[in-house]
Design goal:
Elements: H1 3-30, H2 36-58, E1 68-75, E2 81-88
Antiparallel strand pairs: 1-2
Amino acid sequence: MNLISILSILAAASWLGIIGAIALAVARAARGEGTKGVSGLIIVAVIVAIALNVLSAGLVFIEPNERGVVLLSVKAAFGRWLYSLAYVG
């Protein structure tokens, strides 16, 4: 199992954790208890879920017997776009 699969599983689990935290907040509000601690948990869980999704979407695994081409675009100081190709292999 590679790193990308692990991050994807963690991202999915964090979104399920958000759903669970929202359900916990609704249940506590229905009983008249405070939701102060749960709201902080929801905010942290959303930040972690977004970070894991961005991280897992930005990674690409290339097998050792395969070749890849990386296309990188960077805005130059004078407003022109630079395209650099880097050969991986």
